[in-house]
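Repro:
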Amino acid sequence: ATLMSESMVGVVPSSSRWNWVEQCCYVVGEMLACGCPVIASDCGAIPEFWGKCESVKIIPQNDIYALRSTIQEVMEHPLDREVARRFIVENYSNEVLARKYVEALQP
């Protein structure tokens, strides 16, 4: 957690395979919870879970040029660490998930 909270950006360059595709990618959420902005590929469900966060940059998977340019962009114009943390608190905190769970069980 210390390394994530002190990092300028986390990079998750996931890539689909014939027998595997990225699911939720919890490490993205863990980084955001630590206030670490993220660059992640558009592999699997990553865009669905994390693409709405302003501190997450989604890039095409297997595109090393997009990865390089996005890293350069983030180094020159850092993403907001507080936005990263707030996104998790507002969307995935225990209280929010419990409320959503109860709402889903209501008839």
